[in-house]
Amino acid sequence: MAACTHLDELATADPPATTPDGCEECLATGSDWVHLRRCLTCGHIGCYDSSPNKHASAHFRQTQDPVITSYEPGESWRWCFVDEVGA
Questions:
Q1: Can you say whether the dihedral through the CA atoms of 17, 23, 28, 34 is positive or negative?
Q2: What is the 3-state secondary structure (H, E, C) of the chain?
Q3: Inter-CA distances, 69 with 29, 41, 47, 60, Å
Q4: Which of 3, 17, 44, 68 has a 20 to 30 Å separation from 36 between CA atoms?
């Protein structure tokens, strides 16, 4: 089974203090989201692919920050975009 090769790149970045309760881009535009994800490199909070705007995936494409985690209460998984595996 393949493993994430980017765990050594993870930072302990906290979510941005200005938008801890939602997708940064959706809050700015008044859009809705379904699920939130946090970038484990920079702390960016974005909506995931089940949301209309898919800002977490767009953040990866723009920054190449490899690993996200769920920002939903009670969830604690991680996903590596580059290796396409749980991290």
A1: negative
A2: CCCCCCHHHCCCCCCCCCCCCCCHHHHHHCCCCCCEEEECCCCCEEECCCCCCCHHHHHHHHHCCCEEEECCCCCCCEEECCCCEEC
A3: 23, 10, 11, 12
A4: 3
CB contact set of 67 (below 8 Å; sequence gap of 6+): 4, 6, 7, 9, 10, 39, 40, 41, 78, 79, 80, 81, 87
Tell me: the pLDDT tens digits for 24-60? 899 999 999 999 999 998 889 999 999 999 999 999 9
Token reading at 32: 């809705």
Locate the domains of the chain by residue range: 7-86
Q: Which CATH superfamily includes the segment(s) 7-86?
A: Zinc/RING finger domain, C3HC4 (zinc finger) (3.30.40.10)
The pTM (predicted TM-score) of the whole model is 0.85
